[in-house]
Amino acid sequence: MVELQNVSVTYSSGVDALNNVSLKINDGDFAFVVGSSGAGKSTMIKLLLKEIDATSGVVTVNGYNLNKLRKRKIPEFRRTLGFVFQDFRLIPSMTVYENIAFVLRVLDAPIKLIRKRVPYVISLVGLQSKTNSYPDELSGGEKQRVAIARALVNDPQLIIADEPTGNIDPELSYEIVELLKGINDQGTTILMVTHEHDLVRHFGGRIINITDGEIVYDEVVMGINDEILPEVELAQSMENAASVPYQTALGTEPNGSELPLIDDVIAAITGASQNDGGGAE
Amino acid sequence: MKVSGIKYLANQGIENIWKNKMMAFATFCVLLISLLLVGCSALFYINMNSMILGLGNQNEIAVYLYSNTPQERVAEINAQLVELENVDTVVYNSKDEAYQRMQNQISQGKEIFDYIDDHEFMPDGFSVTVINNDQIENTTEIINQIAEVEVAKSSPQVAQFLRELRRVVTIIAGAVIIALAVVSMIMISNTTKASVFARREEIQIMKYVGATNAFIRTPFFVEGFVTGFFAGAGAFLITWAVYRSVYNILLDQGTLMNAFGVASVIPFDDISLIVGAAYLLIGGFVGALGSVVSTRKHLNV
Fold first, then answer.
1. Contact A79 B5 (CB under 8 A)
2. Start-to-end CA span in chain B (Å)
3. Which residue segments constitute the domains of chain A, with CATH numbers given?
4. CA nearest A150 in B: which residue?
5. What residue ranges do the domains of chain B occupy?
6. What are the pLDDT tens digits along chain B (301 aa)?
7. Which residues of B touch A76 (CB under 8 A)?
């Protein structure tokens, strides 16, 4: 569970990165965090990783009050999380197996468990044939799948994915999000930061839009038109879209045009035709 | 942490040397050169000190007894001198030896000795060497207090000069060793920093997955220690080879060089254990410390 209560972050340069943000993500949720560059998404991720502290407000992640978390307790807290980064952040000198096993080594897990668990998560991401490969020998999509397997291996309560599709081919992006959705189906909370509106529109779910350090939109929808994401006033109107059952968006075909229901809603709100939107930011 | 965990981290440290072999080699070279610079300076100083002390030991107290001192008493005085605290060796010079020496020292008019058939007018004497040359004046004073001693003479100027020389050598050598040690630490620090900097992302990833600082540092510690240990071993072998060569060359110079106290140069076998242990331990310690300290900056994630 992630909870931000009236959280503000002001950097030493005087820049207000987050301004009185309140947010709650329950266990088992899948949430997209969207927003333009400099909107405050990265600051929020840093907050959730306890990389920086809030200037004011309360940040609670997986039962840890990060405001009161002592430095020496940070490793223990981070072991309850899984991370997936845009640049994969795999250790280049370690094989796929070693990169994933490293997380369990940190936990001082028994060798037997490591030998059982690591091949299992590698099979979940479909990389059995690459077990002994080094990151340099993998494609972008494969690297990201290794990163997901690493995030998954210690069975975390929450996975934070920061632009996980940012460095891979668009067609592979769907695979990655499908993978994360599948993990979410098993009960793991997923918080995915992205600016790829095609993906968000395709998968739908809970969308949190951060603009200028404030949450301007936070609803569960089936799909959304990327053109209106940054528009605060339109976001208010999108409440109608939130009424569309979240579950119905899942399991649909990977083509955004096959979501007539939400596109009809958008068309009704904006007066635009169904085919106007869809370009990446 | 379990034994398997410690073993894993130690293995990681050793594997990292191979995986980052170029940086490990750079660290090894810098450590080797640093150890050689400081080690050779220290050895040079130790030998200079030994040579000066050796020269000091050649500084004797010449003791002359009254010529009428009975032989039994001469033997007693000999024993008394040996018992003195600062006395190293006592060599008895009999009346006959003194007479002989006097004869040898006179090159012209040796006929005079044809008229002398009694050596009794010559004094019995002793050549006394001391343990601590700095105390030679005190020891001379004590010997002078023996009733039968007509005169005991030493050369305090020589002692004074050697004392001064040792002081200057100690200051210069100390300054050089400290300067070299500082330069070495800067070189080692920069090299290990560069080595760790190249792997900063690796450290950050480890932090993100919940590794403690100790968990991250242990392989770096092992890596630094092993690299430093091997650098120490390399420095020892080079020092051994060079030292023995120089030592043999100096010995071959024989008596000429002995005038400069070369006979007091310490044979390598006498100090090889200390030199070896110092190189290995300092190499290992500095390597490990440099490596661990350099990670600190990157651990604040």
1. no
2. 23
3. 2-80+158-270 (3.40.50.300), 90-155 (no CATH)
4. B209
5. 3-55+161-299, 60-154
6. 677 778 888 888 888 888 888 888 988 999 999 999 999 999 999 988 888 877 776 778 999 998 888 888 989 999 999 999 888 889 998 888 877 777 777 767 777 777 776 667 788 899 898 888 778 888 999 999 998 899 998 877 777 888 888 889 899 989 988 988 888 888 888 887 887 887 888 888 888 888 888 888 888 889 889 999 999 999 999 999 999 998 888 877 766 666 666 667 888 999 999 999 999 999 999 989 888 888 887 887 6
7. 210
Question: Under a CB-based contact definition with an 8 Å cutoff, are residues A148 and A125 in contact?
Answer: yes
Q: Which pairing describes strands A16-25 and B87-93: parallel, antiparallel, or unpaired?
A: unpaired
Which H, E and C letters describe A74-133, residue by residue? HHHHHCCEEEEECCCCCCCCCCHHHHHHHHHHHCCCCHHHHHHHHHHHHHHCCCHHHCCC
Q: A143 — contact with chain B (CB < 8 Å)? A: no
| Partner residue facing A89 (CB), from B19, B201, B210 | B201
B205 touches chain A (CB under 8 A): yes
B-interface mutation test, from A69, A77, A91, most B Cβ less than 10 A away: A91
Decide: B108 and B177 in contact? Cβ < 8 Å. no
B300 and chain A in contact, CB less than 8 A: no
Structure tokens at A195: 């600016």
Name, in order, each residue with C-beta under 8 angstroms of B176's C-beta and a sequence gap of 6 or more: B41
CATH 3.30.70.3040 is held by the domain B60-154: yes
Q: What is the DSSP letter of B209?
A: T
Query: Would you call A103 and B210 a contact, using CB atoms and an 8 Å cutoff?
Result: yes
Q: Is A154:A103 a contact under the CB 8 Å cutoff?
A: yes
The answer to whether A108 contacts B207, with C-beta atoms less than 8 Å apart, is no
Three-class SS state of B116: coil
Is B14 in the A-facing interface, judged by CB distances under 8 Å?
Answer: no
Contact residues on chain B for A78, CB-CB shorter than 8 A: 207-210
Taken in order B69, B70, B71, B72, is the CA torsion positive or negative? negative
Are the beta carbons of B210 and A77 separated by less than 8 Å?
yes
Q: Identity (one letter) of the amino acid at B257?
A: M
Tell me the nearest-neighbour CA distance from A51 into chain B, angstroms.
Answer: 6
Inter-CA distances, B221 with B92, B190, B283, Å: 62, 16, 13
Nearest-CA distance A108 → chain B (Å): 6
**Alpha-carbon distance B275 to B285, whole Å?**
15
User: pLDDT by residue (tens digit) across A146-192?
Assistant: 999 999 898 899 999 998 988 888 878 888 898 899 889 888 999 99
Query: How far is residue A274 from each of residues A120, A243, A264, measured CA to CA in Å?
Result: 43, 19, 7
Flag whether residue A51 sits within 8 Å of chain B, measured between CB atoms.
Answer: yes
What is the C-alpha to C-alpha distance for residues A33 and A200, in angstroms, rounded to an integer?
Answer: 9
Residue B148: how many CA atoms within 13 Å on its side-chain side? Answer: 19
Q: Which residue has the tokens 């990670």?
A: B295
pTM: 0.67
